[in-house]
Amino acid sequence: MFAVLGRLKTSLSAAVDQRLRREHDLPLATFDAMKTIGRSADGCHSDDLAQSLAVSPHEADLIIDALVAAGRAFRKPRPGASGAGPVALTLSGALVLERAGQTVERVLHAHLDPMLSPSDQRLLEESLRALRPRRASHTTNGVAEARGASVP
Asked: 1.10.260.40, 3.10.50.40, 1.10.10.10, 3.20.20.20: which CATH number matches 9-128?
């Protein structure tokens, strides 16, 4: 089963990445980062982005810097606080994300609709979400605990 899931992920990722690059000049990895940032109404901190994307905090900062340089995101000010503030999408970034999200849905439907009914697709998504490992956080005493928050 591992090989089947791996091949499916690779195939779908390649198809989505190719279409996002062609239609929006947007790699899939950047789309994923923008999607994570766009989910947070108050802005997304680089540590949260790193955890969501399973990258190092340094890599998350590089992703944020690239999005800011491209005009797709901005850092929110933190009055009276030092360090980088949370990042949010610009209006143009939010529009790109919305259009790119529609493209992703079209690609997925083109690949899945011939094989799975809408109810089977919902069941597959629910099953995959249930199987996804919960994120771990560290308490003040250093013991990792599972977060109870649902994973989008």
From this structure: 1.10.10.10
